Amino acid sequence: MPSALPLGDPAPADGGLPDLLPAAHPDFGVYVHVPFCRVRCGYCDFNTYTATELRGASQADYPDEVAREIALAAQVMDAAGRRRAATSVFFGGGTPTLLPGDALARMLGDVRDAFGIAADAEVTVEANPDTVTPALTARLAEAGVTRLSIGMQSAVPSVLATLDRTHEPAAVPRAVTAARAAGLQVSVDVIYGTPGETLADWERTLDAVTALETDHVSAYALIVEEGTALARRIARGEIDTVDDDVQADMYELTDARLAAAGYGWYEVSNWSRDEATRSRHNLAYWRGADWWGFGPGAHSHVGGVRWWNVKHPAAYAQRLSLGSSPAAGRETPDAASRALERTMLEVRIADGLAVASLPATGRAEVAGLIADGLVDGASAIAGRLVLTLRGRLLADAVVRRLTA
Questions:
Q1: Which of 80, 183, 203, 310 is the most buried (most CB within 10 A)?
Q2: pLDDT interval class at 2 (50, 70, 90)
Q3: Parallel, antiparallel, or unpaired for β 117-127 and 185-192?
Q4: Is the pLDDT of residue 259 over 80?
Q5: Residue 329 near residue 5 (C-beta atoms within 8 A)
Q6: Rounded-to-integer distance, Cα 35 and Cα 92, Å
Q7: Which of 204, 209, 191 is nearest to 247 (CA)?
Q8: Taking the CA atoms of the chain, what radius of gyration do you get in angstroms?
């Protein structure tokens, strides 16, 4: 089942925002959550729903509902003095490409009409490989989409089966070909450390990834989330637990193979061909920019205020039909919490974290982190804290030392 929403303060029915902090970064991102899937993958705890779980909600009506939230957002951002053109738009899910191309194009058009979209904006649509066709990618490109992010996960059928993925490995190169033919940049997402996956299995996936020659690769360590079908299977002893040491070996292999194929890491779990093919949308998250998340369960952040929408599509639709904000709750983190989050996020990117932004206790840890081989010494002396390969493997430990 989807994970629970965080606790927070009540959100006003009109969606109005309190006094805001100055924007930490000039970018403004728009996220559109499409909460529909054909089946629920066993490892997934995202806010997604199959046809039998919708109960009173409709995929066909979804663009109308998002349009209502977009109109509300434009009013709220105007009142707060924050309405500006989107520098990135990201359709995530779920499976956005379960919706027709015309529906995705319409929602993108609604964003354009309400906010404007910057001339150099990055516009991404996530897709399962078996939902991608040449007709779909052509329609998306026509609408202004610039990038397709394909959920590959693995090239090994047995691993896909453990993850409850329904596509065949051959669907991935077909999807990449269709995206390229439409002129789209292409990213693939893969997952390592699935129970039962061997290092040889993962190398087979990396062979397939590098053969695709995409613009961008995201590689994530599998996290077994409480309440998922995968967690229950592990608890019953049906499959092995995830092995942290094997995952570390897989990460090192990933970095080496991708570097040899011409990719550079720019965030702990992300590699790109060059700076132009980095995910601008995700970088905006990591750098603390403003963004508005549309759809059930979507999270937003503007000027230091965070809020999140009700989870179920039917509840989301009902609130909007009554003219109310779909926000379920919100919070305004204090300065200490914002500083902690900044450290947690910025230390993960290759551009690094400004040493001067750390408290005195954190700065005192830098020499030890260099000595332990966790951060790059030359970069630290130049004023930026940049993780080494070993540091990327132990990023959480680095953050704990900097923030203790």
A1: 310
A2: low
A3: unpaired
A4: yes
A5: yes
A6: 8
A7: 191
A8: 21
Name the token pair of 365.
């840890």
pLDDT digits (tens, 9 = 90+) for 89-109: 999 999 999 999 999 999 999
- Name the CA dihedral angle for 299, 121, 151, 130, rounded to a multiple of 10 degrees: 110
The neighbouring-strand residues paired with 11 are none
Closest of 325, 309, 298 to residue 76, by C-alpha: 325
Using CA atoms, how far apart are residues 237 and 152, in angstroms rounded to an integer? 27
pLDDT of residue 399: 97
pLDDT of residue 1: 56
State the amino acid at position 298 in one-letter form. Answer: A
Angle, in degrees to the nearest 10, between helices 134-143 and 101-115: 10
- 391 and 398 in contact (C-beta within 8 Å)? yes
Q: What is the dihedral of CA 20, 22, 28, 30, to 10 degrees?
A: -20
pLDDT of residue 158: 97
Paired strand residues for 34: 93
Measured in degrees and rounded to the nearest 5, phi and psi for residue 243 equal -95, 115
Burial of 48 (0-12, 13-18, 19+ CB in 10 A): buried
What torsion do the CA atoms of 113, 119, 124, 125 make, to the nearest 10 degrees?
A: 40
Torsion angle of the four alpha carbons 228, 229, 232, 238, in this order, in degrees rounded to the nearest 10: -150
Given a contact cutoff of 8 angstroms between Cβ atoms, the answer to whether 53 and 313 are in contact is no
Tokens of 306: 């965070």
Report d(CA 210, CA 349) in Å as an integer.
22
Look-up: residue for tokens 């596509």? 167
375 has pLDDT over 90: yes
User: Which H, E and C letters describe 279-347, residue by residue?
Assistant: CHHHHHHHCCCEEEEECCCCEEEECCEEEEECCCHHHHHHHHHCCCCCEEEEECCCHHHHHHHHHHHHC
Whether pLDDT at 150 is above 90: yes
Q: Which two tokens stand for residue 330?
A: 């919100």
Report yes or no: 385 and 347 within 8 Å, Cβ to Cβ: yes
Report residue 4's pLDDT band, with 50, 70 and 90 as the boundaries: confident
Q: How far apart are CA 70 and CA 64, in angstroms?
A: 10
Query: Can you name the residues that pair with 342 across neighbouring β-strands?
Result: none
- Sign of the C-alpha dihedral computed for residues 343, 344, 346 and 349 taken in this order: positive
CB within 8 Å of 71: residues ≥ 6 apart: 114
pLDDT in tens, 133-145: 999 999 999 999 9
